[in-house]
Write a structure and sequence with these properties.
This protein is α/β, with parallel strands linked by helices. It has a single domain, classed as TIM Barrel (Alpha-Beta Barrel), CATH 3.20.20. The protein is 35% helix and 17% strand. The protein has an eight-stranded parallel β-barrel, surrounded by four helices. Strand 5, helix 5 and strand 6 form a beta-alpha-beta unit. Helix 5 runs parallel beside helix 6. It starts with a helix and ends with a helix. The N terminus is likely disordered.
Length: 353
C-alpha cells in the first residue's frame, strides 16, 4: 500500500489542486449593467455560486488607470473583500497597463509613458508595493501575485520588450525584479507566491526557450503559469507533454493560468451556430461538450509529474451580457450568456459531475 501511494505521488496521480477557479474581474461591470447570475433558477451572488460548486480560488486583473474605471485599485479592493468573504483564495494579475496586456500588446500606462528607464523601474516597484500593501491593510492579502500578464514578449514596451534573438532580456529582467521586490515589500509577512505567466501552453519550444532564459538570468518564480487555449496553443497531448517537461526540468509548481472552450459554436463560413465548430472534435460546442473539455483538462492537471499541477483558471467565466443584449465573452462563459444560469462546466472544473 505504501508503495502504491508513493508511486501515485511521483506520477501526480490523484493530486489535489489548490487553485481551481477563474479570472472573474468582469463581475462588477456585469452587475452594474444589470446582469444576474443564477444556480438552478435562483439568483445568487456569483462568488457564492462558484464556491458552492467547488471552486477555491479566483483571479483579478489590475490596471493602472483604466478609462472606464473597472479593474482599478478601488474595484480591486472591493472585490477582494467579497472574494475573501466567500472563502476563496485571491490571485492578483498586474498588467502594468491602463488596459489589456498580452503577447500582442504590452502598452505602458499613460502616466509612465515619458519616464526614463530608472524612473520606470521605480514606478513598477512602487505601484506593485502600494497595491499589495492596500490589500494586506484591509485584511485581504493575496495568495498569488503575477508581475505581468502573458509576458512571453516582455512588458512595458518598448523598454521591456523581448525579441526572438534574445535582445531585451536585460531590461525585462530588471523590470520584473523591481516588480517582485515591490510585491514582497507590500506583502510583508503575508508572503504571496509569485507566478510568472506566459502563453503557448502546448508549445514546448517557446516554453523551453523562455524559461531557460528567465532562470539563467536569476529569475524568480514559485509558480509557472501558462495560458492554454486549444484554438491557439496546440493539442491536449502537446499540453500534457509540455507540462511534464517543465515539471521535470524546473521542479516548480505549474498552473494553467488561462483557458476557455465554447459552449456554443459559430461557423465563420456559414455564419451560423454550429456545435461542430470546435478545436477538439470529441468535445462539441455545447454545455456538456464544454464540461467534457474541462474534465479532460483537469485530468491533465492532476497528472503532472511530482504533483506539480496545482490548478486551472478559466478566463472570464462570468463575462455574460446584460439581459437581452449580446456581448461579453458570450460563447465561452461558464454561465448562460442570456439567462445567467450556471453551466455544467463550473462543477466539472471542480471535479464534480
Amino acid at each position: 500500500m505504501v508503495g502504491a501511494v508513493m508511486a501515485a505521488i511521483l506520477l501526480g496521480k490523484g493530486a489535489s489542486m489548490p487553485f481551481i477557479g477563474g479570472d472573474i474581474s468582469e463581475i462588477p461591470e456585469v452587475e452594474a449593467s444589470g446582469g444576474q447570475f443564477r444556480a438552478s433558477g435562483t439568483t445568487k451572488d456569483p462568488l457564492k455560486i462558484l464556491k458552492e460548486s467547488g471552486w477555491n480560488a479566483v483571479r483579478l486583473r489590475v490596471w493602472n488607470e483604466p478609462k472606464d474605471g473597472y479593474c482599478d485599485m478601488a474595484h480591486t479592493l472591493a472585490m477582494a473583500k467579497r472574494i475573501k468573504a466567500a472563502g476563496l483564495k485571491l490571485m492578483i494579475d498586474f498588467h502594468y497597463s491602463d488596459s489589456w496586456a498580452d503577447p500582442a500588446k504590452q502598452n505602458k500606462p499613460a502616466a509612465w509613458a515619458k519616464l526614463d528607464f530608472e524612473q520606470l523601474k521605480s514606478a513598477i516597484r512602487d505601484f506593485s508595493k502600494t497595491t499589495v500593501q492596500a490589500l494586506v491593510a484591509q485584511g485581504t492579502p493575496p495568495d498569488v501575485v503575477q508581475p505581468g500578464n502573458e509576458v512571453t514578449n516582455g512588458m512595458l514596451w518598448p523598454d521591456g520588450q523581448l525579441h526572438i534573438n534574445t535582445d531585451g532580456w536585460a531590461k525585462f529582467m530588471e523590470l520584473t525584479k523591481a516588480a517582485i521586490a515591490g510585491i514582497r515589500e507590500g506583502a510583508g509577512a503575508a508572503k504571496p507566491k509569485i507566478m510568472i505567466h506566459i502563453d503557448q501552453g502546448g508549445n514546448n519550444s517557446v516554453s523551453r526557450y523562455w524559461f531557460e532564459n528567465y532562470f539563467k538570468r536569476g529569475g524568480e518564480a514559485d509558480i509557472l503559469g501558462l495560458s492554454y487555449y486549444p484554438f491557439w496553443h496546440g493539442t491536449l497531448d502537446e499540453l500534457r507533454a509540455n507540462l511534464a517537461f517543465l515539471a521535470n526540468t524546473y521542479r516548480k509548481d505549474i498552473l494553467i493560468a488561462e483557458t476557455a472552450y465554447p459552449h456554443t459554436g459559430w461557423n465563420d463560413q456559414t455564419h451560423k451556430v454550429d456545435e461542430d465548430a470546435v478545436p477538439i472534435p470529441q468535445f462539441k460546442a455545447t454545455p456538456e461538450g464544454q464540461a467534457g473539455y474541462l474534465r479532460e483538462l483537469r485530468k491533465i492537471g492532476e497528472n503532472v509529474p511530482g504533483n506539480r499541477g496545482i490548478g486551472i483558471l478559466w478566463w472570464a467565466p462570468t463575462w455574460i451580457a446584460r439581459p437581452g443584449h449580446a456581448g461579453g465573452w458570450n460563447r465561452f462563459t461558464l454561465f448562460d450568456p442570456e439567462s445567467g444560469e450556471a453551466l455544467p462546466g463550473i462543477r466539472a472544473l471542480a471535479g464534480g459531475g
